[in-house]
């Protein structure tokens, strides 16, 4: 087992020389807790997990001679001492002066950074698995998707919720939506885990999160496959700790980040939002450590989760972006088994009927308010029309958002309009139905 072998091996440090059964000798360029990056003498660079296939050896003959000359008693005393701490790598920024600034690297610009962990939250059934599968497949096929340009290269998808046949069906639809076939997915690898224990990390007796053999096996394969993106679906199935304990959450994310750095790839972790996260619209899940431990977090949701409007619509929101701007949105739509950009084009007949009903209700309620001398406006405030209308008995079945959308469409079509009353110093707006503007009719008749 890799974990057992790792316990008997001294911890690696950058610059250490190692030998590997398959790859020969090399130097450590990155030293993680359970995975390290090695530049081998044959010119290849690989990530390795300490196991029976490699051993560490001294960096020079002097060290070997010194070790051989050490007495058994001294060795025993040394063995009793705790291992020396890895030297701290203090950086002098003046050494960067005059050098070109490294360009930040992305898997998908402004959404998924390389060498970091990105969380994608999404309500159950909204399609977060399909979306990330589509992004991973696009990267493997070297094509753009949803106006993203994923970094072309190998991708790895670890799915704990669906069987292989379900991914088969989804990948066919995704490939065809991009004018491709399954034959174009040679750079994609899938690990379905629906039929087995999918936990990647469990706490030991002290509460410290430790990798499971499954996790080590996945990362061992990833070290060989060299993916540009690894997707883990979902946290609820893969994380074996207590999500309320911030330390365990941060350790788990830290393990994933180590791999992202060692493999120079992006890691995406899917997660369900908490009830509070759904109610607040933030999409956050469990402990705040999930959000705080990552540099990017996205939220896939419906534009109006409580409404009945057009159930094929989705919106991907940027909830956290340490390297970019938060608050961005990408409007997408489910179509024939894949997501496409929602450009405001034709929608289903059912959705059109819903919109027409909302517009008719808006006009009828507006006339009722006007007739009873109650002024409504289009600007947010005490007389904001959608807020007042949604409380009216005739608005039953409509949401504030559906009425607001109906108001905007009616204003753009000219069916309703704003008129202004009062002195110039204190004008007040009110909404009316355009054909009910009797003042215009009278002036026209004259």
- Termini Cα gap: 95 Å
- The whole-number mean of residue pLDDT values reads 82
Model regions low in confidence, pLDDT < 50 over at least 5 residues: 1-9, 58-79, 441-446
Q: Give the helix/strand class.
A: alpha/beta
- The shape is elongated
**Can you count the helices?**
14
Order of strands across the biggest sheet?
A: 10-9-13-14-8-15-16-17-18
Largest sheet: 9 strands, mixed
DSSP strand content: 15-25%
Question: How many E strands?
Answer: 20
Radius of gyration from the CA trace? 30 Å
Q: What portion of residues is helical?
A: 25-40%
Name some characteristics of this structure.
single chain; 446 residues; alpha/beta; elongated; disordered N terminus
Q: What is the structure about, briefly put?
A:
It contains 14 helices and 20 strands. The chain has 446 residues and is an alpha/beta fold.
Secondary-structure topology with pairs:
Blueprint: H1 2-8, E1 17-20, E2 24-31, E3 36-40, E4 45-48, E5 54-57, H2 61-69, H3 72-80, E6 106-108, E7 112-113, E8 117-122, H4 128-141, E9 155-159, H5 164-177, E10 188-192, E11 201-203, E12 209-211, H6 213-225, E13 229-233, H7 235-238, H8 246-263, E14 266-271, H9 275-280, H10 288-292, E15 296-301, E16 313-321, E17 329-335, E18 338-341, H11 349-371, H12 385-389, H13 400-413, E19 416-421, E20 428-433, H14 438-445
Parallel strand pairs: 8-14, 8-15, 9-10, 9-13, 13-14
Antiparallel strand pairs: 1-2, 1-5, 2-3, 3-4, 6-7, 11-12, 15-16, 16-17, 17-18, 19-20
Helix pairs in contact: 4-5, 11-13
